[in-house]
Amino acid sequence: MNKEKLLYENSKYALQSDNIIAITNRHLCSRPFTEQLERVCKLHPHAIVLREKDMPEAEYLSLARDVIALCKKYDVQCMLHSFINVAMELEHPYIHLPLPILEAYVKKGLSDNISTDMSKSTDNYQQFFKVIGTSVHSVEDAIKAEQLGATYMTAGHIFATDCKKGLPPRGLDFLKNVCDAVGIPVYAIGGINIASSGDSTASDAPSTYDAMPDINVPRLADVMECGAAGGCIMSGMMRV
């Protein structure tokens, strides 16, 4: 971990663009989705993962085209999620894949679980993509992901979160073990959120932040002390 990246502004919890990945979920937005994503882009996170995997592929293609353009406007990296064919159709070499899909493509080529009606062939996707992210839930997953060619991974869930009600968090010791086991960037996910500047204990509680620059990430320092490159935020970013 490069401690020089922790350029704390006002408090050690200040949002650092190099250390945050925003994960999308249009179902959590009270504003029009693209309007919300522009608000996120103005915070300049390290990346935005367009995780609308319940969309039909053609609809995702149309959305991805617009979101990629929006991210370019603000110099934010856009990671498409799951839809390999869409990424190749748009010649966008940045993708986040669930580990089973990543493994299926590496070991078997085209997966039966992903439609292949786009014009681009996905046979050589590993050569095409510059960045391949994946999600892991164990040290064994992490080692496998790196061997399969992932260039970064998310690991979780680290803290208790409403998204995983009833499931105990894996905790910081788990995160440290994952970070120690691999040589690629690891981003913690689960229970990490942004908060108004006066609140250092915020979790996944719904909030609206009108003063966009005046936010912090209470748990960011904790995950980075475990060796993580940063953290992922979904619900907070969809409400900021």
TrEMBL record:
<dbReference type="GO" id="GO:0004789">
    <property type="term" value="F:thiamine-phosphate diphosphorylase activity"/>
</dbReference>
<dbReference type="Pfam" id="PF02581">
    <property type="entry name" value="TMP-TENI"/>
</dbReference>
<keyword id="KW-0784">Thiamine biosynthesis</keyword>
<dbReference type="InterPro" id="IPR022998">
    <property type="entry name" value="ThiamineP_synth_TenI"/>
</dbReference>
<feature type="domain" description="Thiamine phosphate synthase/TenI">
    <location>
        <begin position="21"/>
        <end position="198"/>
    </location>
</feature>
<dbReference type="InterPro" id="IPR013785">
    <property type="entry name" value="Aldolase_TIM"/>
</dbReference>
<comment type="pathway">
    <text>Cofactor biosynthesis; thiamine diphosphate biosynthesis.</text>
</comment>
<dbReference type="InterPro" id="IPR036206">
    <property type="entry name" value="ThiamineP_synth_sf"/>
</dbReference>
<protein>
    <submittedName>
        <fullName>Thiamine phosphate synthase</fullName>
    </submittedName>
</protein>
<dbReference type="GO" id="GO:0009228">
    <property type="term" value="P:thiamine biosynthetic process"/>
</dbReference>
<dbReference type="GO" id="GO:0005737">
    <property type="term" value="C:cytoplasm"/>
</dbReference>
